[in-house]
């Protein structure tokens, strides 16, 4: 299946090709045709599956093909975090670059002036986090009566982060007649109820959790005692001097501790996790993407939404409790034909976790001696 066969039009095709998207991912293959057909969608998919393009491409296409566009915001994309909002906005920027579609992104934690200025100039697609959207709506900056497409992204995470109340206040302000695309990685009862209350005869699209690892990723494991993990990490980073490493820690506290240890050892690094402010997380990400620091330490939740391509190395300082998480973690390296490397530190008490991972991926990870 190609994007052309999914009826994607020329200006969008050109932009996708420039981004190196040659074939649609499974969620794109399943979701794009019904979205182009004006259907509502209930999408069960995690970040990393290509779901942003699955909703953004057909919306861009709809708006581009509109004969007599009215003034006003035509598509609203709600997402829980500032990082995700920025990423979605960057994707739209790329996919819509050969169209006249205008978009902007609004999120909290920063001054509102630049955001309200952008809104005043007029936008077709608005990407927003719930708090700032409500705030600017209340101030009268955002009329939503022209919305034709509404995307609720990462609904389960919205619930976790306490945004459901905000969303319930936003929903009645949207026109009744519209297309709704609802995405969630999991479907707890509260999310299922919410989806039923806002979707009309939706098409359900689901992509199964990852179990396969691309063969461009070299994977190894070190058997190492807990208290020796830090020395191993420093040794590896000093010897290999990789440009971009993501180190996974199971806990927020652990992530901070690793950052402190690396800083003491003279290795520039920063930790990102839920206890850090949006600004601190964004700064860390910017420093990492611009190669100011080469090591980012993250918890799974914090890492879930971040889009970092071309990672050279992923280190599992702690093994994850859920084997699928291993696949997601290391899938951040070896992308787009680049070779990547994934190293896992396994202490005695983590051996059952390693066993589960090896069962899921269907092979044993080669063990490296500690001196290697
Ligand atoms: P997402 O799940 O939307 O966060 O996307 C995960 C990553 O996959 C992003 O880095 C996208 O740029 C990339 N991506 C999305 N669709 C495709 C595609 N069809 N081909 C190649 N890469 C893609």
3D structure, described in words:
This protein has 372 residues and is α/β, with parallel strands linked by helices. Helix content is 41%, strand content 16%. The protein has helices at residues 10-18, 26-36, 51-65, 82-95, 113-121, 130-138, 155-160, 164-170, 189-198, 229-240, 252-264, 278-289, 300-304, 323-330, 351-361, and strands spanning 41-44, 75-78, 103-106, 125-128, 149-152, 179-184, 203-206, 217-223, 245-248, 269-272, 295-298, 313-316, 340-346. Strands 3-4-2-5-6-1-7 form a seven-stranded parallel beta sheet, sandwiched between helices. The protein has a six-stranded parallel beta sheet with strand order 8-13-12-9-11-10. Strand 3, helix 5 (113-121) and strand 4 (125-128) form a beta-alpha-beta unit. The chain is globular, with a radius of gyration of 21 Å. The termini are far apart. The model has no long low-confidence stretch (mean pLDDT 91). Adenosine monophosphate binds next to helix 3.
In short:
With 372 residues, the protein is of the alpha/beta class.
Ligands present: adenosine monophosphate
Strand order of the biggest β-sheet:
3-4-2-5-6-1-7
Q: Number of DSSP strands?
A: 13
Number of helical regions? 15
Q: Which term fits the overall shape?
A: globular
Kindly, what is the distance between the CA atoms of the first and last residues, rounded to a whole number of angstroms? 43 Å
Strand content: 15-25%
Q: Low-confidence parts, pLDDT < 50 over ≥5 residues?
A: none
Which H/E pattern describes the elements? HHEHEHEHEHEHHEHEEHEHEHEHEHEH
Strand-pairing-aware structural class? alpha/beta
Mean pLDDT: 91
